[in-house]
Structures are given as C-alpha cells and as structure tokens.
Amino acid sequence: MAGIRFHGRGGQGAVVASKILANAYFKQGLYVQAFPSFGMERKGAPVSAFVRLDNIPIVERGEIKHPSSVIVLDSSLLNKVDVAQGAKPDALILLNCRENEKRIGIKGSFQVTGVDAVKIALQHGLGSKIAPIINTVILGAYARISRDLTLSNLLEAIEEGVPVNPKQNVAAAEAAYQAVFGISGDIDAIKNSH
Fold it and tell me: Could you tell me the CATH superfamily of domain 2-185?
C-alpha cells in the first residue's frame, strides 16, 4: 500500500487535489482513499490531506504516518511543519517553490524536487497574484516524478474534478509536468522516466 500526504494552507486546494489524485489512480484500476485532516481551520492555516492506494481493497483508516510521497503546496510551511516526518526512506518530496530556492534543506534520504507552481498557475490564468490556484499545477509535477501515475489519467481526472477553467487547469498541469527540477537526493527517476 502506498500513502501520499499533502501539506498546504487552508484555501490552497490540498483537499481537492487529494480527491483528483485519488480519482486518477482509480482510473488506473487501483483501490483508493482520499481524506483531509483538519484542526481549527481558517484560511491560511496549515492543513493536511491524504491519498492511500493499493491493488487490493483498503481496510486501513486514519492518517498516513509513513507516506511514500509528500506534496507541499506552500514551501513557507517548512518553517512550521516537519513535512518529512515519518516519510519512508527514499520518499518523493515535491515542493512548490521557485527554482532559486534549491538550497532548501530537508534532512533524510529523500528525493526532493520542486516546481514553481505559482508561476505556472499565473501564466495559465488560474487565480490571482494574491491567491494563485496551484493544486492542479502541482499534480502535473507529481505525475512526472511518481513511479506509477500516468499523465493522461491525471489530466482526465483534473478535467472531471475542477468546476472552473478545466482546460486551463489541464494545460497548467501539462506545463508543470515539464517544469520539475531537482533539489536533493537521487532524482534519476525524473531524468530517465517519461
């Protein structure tokens, strides 16, 4: 069983992203769960969402303590949340950050990659400078680094899962797929796959 954990802020769409990602994996014939974790939520507060997937029906419930992938929608969370907590060795960690932020240090034997999801979202008219909509963008980058998600299934899930501007969301995800950059760890998976 594989677990994916999202870290974001209230209003960034981590929960919607988890549902879209679960649907993309479901299209590939896997059993899936997608669920959020909330505290005293308000816009801008840290939130988590989770996707669990397996080849057999999933009976496990509860938060994913040892994810194989971590997706961070806001790199400023690194100052508040240990996004790598409990992550499996060699876990994939994807950060929304600018390319000049490559010096971000996450301790551990992880494969850390980044994508400038804000820049791509703004280029495709998703949200505004103050509130760019990046959740579908970062999923496109995740499809690039994941070992098991096909871009076509993700794009189909995005088109079904977003009520506004589905074509722009799909185009932004495709752009992000091409815009992933390495930060640390063994990132040969990015260079050699796809």
Answer: Pyruvate-ferredoxin oxidoreductase, PFOR, domain III (3.40.920.10)
